Amino acid sequence: MNSLSIIISIILFPGLIATIMCDKLIVHQNKWEIFKYAIYSFLFGILSYVCLQLLKFIYNEIFVYIVTPLPRFQSNSLDIWSIIQNEKAPLNLKEIAFATVIAPLLAIFATYVVNKKKIHKYAQLIGLSSKYGDENL
């Protein structure tokens, strides 16, 4: 396996967990195809790492600054982004584990939004959509 496939599998692992959960929890008529699984796994994987990046930024910039207002020289970015840019960068297993923990939470949130049709209701509320009905009506 070359390094690109390892990087892709690292990104897809948390996303695959979230996609499997969404597939089991979301009400849909047709069975998801492999292409849809791949796209959703990639999107959920990237979203897991983005949420982890946001949590790290909040922790480093807000919480640590309140406790110790000294200047910090550590980077706020995750190591996963340096792996994508430089294939020789070391793998941080903590980040992968934390992203894997975040992935089911994202899946639960996505399931809630889809099953309760929150995006559709919000679009109607602001007058963006007047569509009535859905595929499972």
Summarize the SSE layout with pairings.
Blueprint: H1 3-25, H2 34-67, H3 79-85, H4 93-115, H5 118-125
Helix pairs in contact: 1-2, 1-4, 2-4
Briefly, what is this?
The chain has 137 residues and is mostly helical.
Task: Label this structure with key terms.
137 residues; mainly alpha; 5 helices; flat
Order of helices and strands: HHHHH
Fraction of residues in β-strands: under 5%
Question: What would the principal axes of the Cα set say about the shape?
Answer: flat
Rounded mean pLDDT is 82
Residue windows where pLDDT falls under 50 for at least 5 positions = none
Number of DSSP strand runs: 0
How does the major sheet shape up?
none
Compute the CA-based radius of gyration: 19 Å
Helix content range: 55-70%
What distance lies between the first and last C-alpha atoms, to the nearest angstrom?
Answer: 46 Å
Q: How many individual helices?
A: 5
Structural commentary:
By secondary structure, the chain is mainly alpha-helical. It has five helices and no strands. The protein starts with a helix and ends in a 12-residue tail after the last helix.
